[in-house]
Amino acid sequence: xxxxxxxxxxxxxTKQFNLTMKSTTLTCLSACVLLILAPTGPxxxxxxxxxxxxxxxxxxxxxxxxxxxxxxxxxTYSIAFTAVTSSGTTYSSGSTIQFNRLKINHGNGxxxxxxRFTTPIGGLYVFSWNIGVHSSYVGNSNLIKNGxxxxxxHCQKTYQQCGATVTMWLNKGEQVWVTxxxxxxxxxxxxxxxxxxxxx
Length: 200
Hints:
One of its GO terms (cellular component) is collagen trimer. The chain is of the alpha+beta class. The protein has a domain at 80-198: Jelly Rolls (Sandwich), CATH 2.60.120.40. 28% of the residues lie in helices and 38% in strands. It is built from three helices and eleven strands, in the order H-H-H-E-E-E-E-E-E-E-E-E-E-E. It has helices spanning 3-14, 22-37, 42-70, and strands at residues 80-84, 89-91, 101-106, 110-111, 116-118, 123-133, 139-145, 148-155, 160-170, 175-180, 185-198. Strands 1, 2, 3, 6, 9 and 11 form a six-stranded antiparallel beta sheet that branches. Strands 4-5-10-7-8 form a five-stranded antiparallel beta sheet, with no helix packed on it. The chain is elongated, with a radius of gyration of 26 Å. The model is unreliable at 4-10, 12-21 and 70-75 (pLDDT under 50).
């Protein structure tokens, strides 16, 4: 096997790619080298290896660019959750809405014991919540950040979904949750959810 390909394989093995496809790429490349060299002559094999070497360089360049753009595929930045209520409940003013059933909790930031999201990694986040409102109650709810109201929504007395979406900068360990507003509220289980995800 030519020395140039030994160097190429060693270089690929030592680089610490942040993308999840790194191991697949390296394994495929090594296997292809062995398969090509076995049945082909020196001239044809050298030509094929030169082509593969150029393709590997192009792939490396693309992966480096993708990493610089946003560390795509890095588990460090994969934070997202969606939680829903498991039963219809009436909440008195200022009560925490019990989003106790998880649809997804990537990064384990949401706690179904206290119904709060605790930031695993600081950064810019998006939060969205929707409350299924009963016609006998005004649909007031608050998004709380570390004990203070960050945003509020108000819905009239009618059957509807009432919600909002906001962005928020959070440091590691800070908490976000949803409460009822200044009056009692009835929350329908089927139509109520709370979601959040990290965008930067």
